[in-house]
Amino acid sequence: MRYGSDFNGFALLDPLKLSEIASQAVEELLREGESANTLASYRGALRYWAAWYQLRFGRVIALPLPPSAVMQFIVDHAERTTAAGRRHELPKEIDELLVRLKFKGKTGPMTLNTLTHRVSVLSKAHQTRQLTNPCQDAKVRELLSRTRRAYGKRGDLPRKKDALTREPLMAMLETCDDDGLRGLRDRALLLFAFATGGRRRSEVTGAEMKHLRRTGDDAYVYRLAYSKTNQAAADRPENLKPIEGIAARSLTAWLKASGVTDGRIFRQVRKSGALGDALSPSAVRDIVKYRAEQAGLPDTYSAHSLRSGFVTEAAAQNVPLADTMAMTGHRSVASVLGYFRPQE
């Protein structure tokens, strides 16, 4: 059966060419499907590239970049060993200005993780725009590969944050007892994150009442519909996270005192004691650091310590690895073992 070029009052599309509206829809779906943390890290990396490029070359950045610019970026930020000692090529004045303008946290060379992340973000920016990708240039790839080896030979490996196991976690919880509504929230939040498998920051602050079901006096089940390890929101048995005992009691106390019945579970607590908007993912990091400081613990804990703490404590309690993975959501043994921290 054949139809004309204008069927039922609307124009037919060219199958070999994506329309402008469809192109916009594709971009919006890709953006919506990306996690908020990933988008934030991409934006931060691209802002840094733009600032560095303008200060280094005296012109506004424009894609595609030549491979030589990417190689300059690598030697500017990667520390290397010379006869005169360790050095990198970013001029001191530019380095200090980038810090002053808050594009960098501190002066000096980048960690290997940060450097490779910045390069991978630039690579993705070229890839999505279907531009010639300088990061795939043979010389750039070889330089980055040798840089990784150099860091490895020197033993400059990423330093992982300590695991927030039972003992330090209990010390942090004690600081919450005399801190009013904020203390009730922090206690419930820390235990919720730990008890549900060491949840990530965005998963904690994104937790909603509609996914929480009470199953007893001291028991809940939380349905984790979406996570980093289940980005397709597949319906799996391990999506159901039990919350029992002290974690359940702390959650009940927070919900009762705050009056939260719908929407996000964890909210801001203003100085007046009134509830504010939902917490941002960075607030989980701030809560962990603040409670660790209040407990007199060393500055070696972060929000990720909850995840490594759950895995490490599970191993100490001889929990089967399959059960641990069901709680964390990991699909790979290698991935979950990456969160294990050997204990004395």
Strand content: 5-15%
What is the average of the pLDDT values?
Answer: 85
Structural class: mainly alpha
DSSP helix fraction: 40-55%
Distance between the termini: 76 Å
What is the CATH superfamily of the largest domain? Intergrase catalytic core
Strand order of the largest sheet: 5-6-7
CATH class (first level) name of the largest domain: Mainly Alpha
Remind me, CATH topology of the largest domain? hpI Integrase, Chain A
Number of helices: 14
Number of domains: 2
Gyration radius (Cα, Å) is 24 Å
CATH architecture of the largest domain: Orthogonal Bundle
Largest sheet: 3 strands, antiparallel
Number of strands: 9
Low-confidence stretches: none
- The gross shape turns out to be globular
Q: Name the helix and strand elements from N-terminus to C-terminus, one letter apiece.
A: EEHHHEEHHHHHHEEEHEEHHHH
Keywords: Chromosome partition, DNA integration, DNA recombination, DNA-binding
Domain Tyr recombinase: 159-344
GO molecular function: DNA binding
InterPro entries: DNA_brk_join_enz, Integrase-like_cat_sf, Integrase_catalytic, Integrase_recombinase_N, Tyrosine_recombinase_XerCD
